[in-house]
Structure formats: structure tokens, C-alpha cells
Design the sequence.
């Protein structure tokens, strides 16, 4: 019998990475794992919380390229899901660009045959964007995070990675999308005019299922970029109402024109910037059907169908925050 294939994962303790680890654990022993099965090695600064789901831990830090040496030795697959989220340009560049480049060099030296690299649709910057295909509009990132993640795609593509650009990722562990909506609504007591923007979104469990399937089951050729949201966009107002109905977001009755809404945000001291607000106030949706078909992975009924299971986590997190 052949030796099991070896998967290396970065970001295993993060929002999306931990969901991928859980999905891979579900795959163990099933047909998704293939006849060889697999061994999972987590690369990071600390071991995963649920250590039983990971077979090996390689201590390393993406901000320290020397620590990555030999992290991919013997590996067949690399799932690079780690990134630095923050406003410091140098810090983001260190991890998301130079750290990624060092990791990809390790993967190439080790002969890794399959790489999946997580990026973001935020690389496109301000909308409106309506059903665009990959790079149909020129990427124009507006934050340190998105600029560095776009730059980090370069070494990943050069190493033959399948690069994924999801939109809004929601579910347990999300500390950005729904908390930002809570800030916006809580600071204004209102909804912005119409709130009818169409948004690309994906439930974290569905995205994890896609990443796991790509790692274990092949799919598209490497050196390619794919949008990785659910194929059907959601309206911002539907997203807000779904979380309001579940007691996650505060109910609001008033509706304000966007200019007045932004003014009220500024006066209240809301920590969400105008550019971040426009990510949900303007159309931002991207043609994502291709990756699900290429991976042989049904996208499921959509992110709003998963909210009952996520609502409790959000309520607890927002209560602590």
C-alpha cells in the first residue's frame, strides 16, 4: 500500500484555517481522502487548539523566513491559509508578501505538487463590481492588507498555486464582517439608503469544504486565480435582516441617505472606515461558479442558510466585544 499523502497547512488556528482542519478531519477515512489517506502537518507559531485533528506541528513564523526551512519536506500538498490582518503596511508586507514568497520557495524545493493559496476579492478595491470574472477590472486595493495580499499572489502563482479570492466570509470565528455591521448599525441606529447592494459571500464551512476538496481531489490547473464565493450573491439588506432576526445585529427602523449615514458614522466615532463601509454599501459580487465546478464541489444552498448555527457564536462574541 502507498504511503499516505502529506498535507501542509498554514493558518490552522485561524478563522478559515481551523474550519479547513475540521473539514479534513471529517474527510478522514472517507472517499474524499483517497485510497492513500493523508497526514496533516500544521505550520505556525502555536499548535492547533484541537491537536487530535493534526498529525504533526512544525513551529514556524511567516515573519521569519529562516524558521520555514524544511517545513514542506516530504509534502504533497500545501494549503496556505495564513495572512496578517492589520493596518501596518510593513507588517502586512513582511507576512503576506515576503513570508509567502519564502514559503513558496520551500514548497518548490520540496517538490510539492499541489498548492492552494487563499487571497481575497478585496484586492479589487472600491466598486461597484457586478458579476465580474477574474481580473475583468484592474485590481486596485485600498488597504495595507489587500495590497499585500495581492502582492502575495505573485509568488504563489509563480509556484503553481491555485489562488482563491473569496468575498465576505461569514460564520463562527468571523471577527470582521458581522462585527463591522454591528458597529455600523449600532453607531447610526439606521440602515443606509436602500441597502440593496449585491454582495459575494460564502459560509466559512462551505469555503473550507472547497479548500479541502481542492487539496485532496485536484481540480483546476495551478498558476490560476479563481473567485471563491457562493455563486449566488446576497443583498446587503437580506444579510442584515437575517442577523437581526437572530438577535445578532440591533434592529433599526430608520433609513438614511448614504451621505447622511456616513456623516452619522463619523460623528459617532464608528471604527469602520468609509471605504470599509462601501464594501457592503455598493455592489461587490464576482462570478464564482467556475471553481466549484472545476473542483467537483457543490456550493450548497448559500451562506444565509447556515446562520442558525452561527448566530450563537456571534451573540457571544459581540457580547464580549
Sequence:
Amino acid at each position: 500500500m502507498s504511503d499516505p499523502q502529506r498535507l501542509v497547512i498554514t493558518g490552522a488556528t485561524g478563522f478559515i484555517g481551523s474550519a479547513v482542519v475540521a473539514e479534513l478531519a471529517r474527510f478522514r477515512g472517507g472517499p474524499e481522502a483517497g485510497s492513500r489517506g493523508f497526514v496533516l502537518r500544521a505550520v505556525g507559531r502555536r499548535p492547533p487548539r484541537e491537536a487530535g485533528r493534526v498529525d504533526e506541528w512544525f513551529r514556524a513564523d511567516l515573519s521569519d523566513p529562516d524558521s520555514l526551512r524544511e517545513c514542506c519536506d516530504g509534502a504533497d500538498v500545501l494549503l496556505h491559509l495564513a495572512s496578517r490582518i492589520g493596518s501596518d503596511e510593513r507588517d502586512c508586507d513582511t507576512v503576506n508578501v515576503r513570508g509567502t514568497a519564502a514559503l513558496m520557495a520551500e514548497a518548490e524545493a520540496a517538490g510539492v505538487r499541489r498548492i492552494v493559496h487563499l487571497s481575497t476579492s478585496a484586492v479589487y478595491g472600491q466598486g461597484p463590481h457586478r458579476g465580474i470574472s477574474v481580473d475583468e477590472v484592474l485590481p486596485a486595493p485600498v488597504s495595507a492588507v489587500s495590497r499585500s495580499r495581492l502582492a502575495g499572489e505573485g509568488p504563489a502563482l509563480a509556484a503553481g498555486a491555485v489562488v482563491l479570492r473569496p468575498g465576505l466570509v461569514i460564520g463562527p470565528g468571523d471577527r470582521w464582517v458581522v462585527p463591522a455591521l454591528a458597529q455600523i448599525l449600532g453607531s447610526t441606529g439606521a440602515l443606509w439608503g436602500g441597502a440593496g447592494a449585491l454582495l459575494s459571500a460564502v459560509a466559512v464551512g462551505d469555503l473550507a469544504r472547497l479548500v479541502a476538496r481542492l487539496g485532496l481531489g485536484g481540480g483546476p490547473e495551478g498558476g490560476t486565480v479563481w473567485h471563491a464565493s457562493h455563486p449566488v450573491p446576497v443583498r446587503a439588506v437580506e444579510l442584515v435582516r437575517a442577523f437581526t432576526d437572530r438577535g445578532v445585529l440591533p434592529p433599526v427602523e430608520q433609513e438614511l441617505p448614504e451621505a447622511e449615514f456616513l456623516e452619522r458614522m463619523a460623528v459617532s466615532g464608528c471604527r469602520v472606515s468609509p471605504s470599509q463601509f462601501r464594501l457592503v454599501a455598493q455592489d461587490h459580487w464576482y462570478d464564482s461558479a467556475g471553481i466549484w465546478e472545476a473542483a467537483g464541489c457543490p456550493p450548497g444552498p448559500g451562506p444565509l442558510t447556515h446562520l442558525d448555527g452561527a448566530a450563537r457564536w456571534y451573540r457571544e462574541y459581540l457580547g464580549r466585544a
Notes: The CA atoms of residues 247 and 315 lie 7 Å apart.
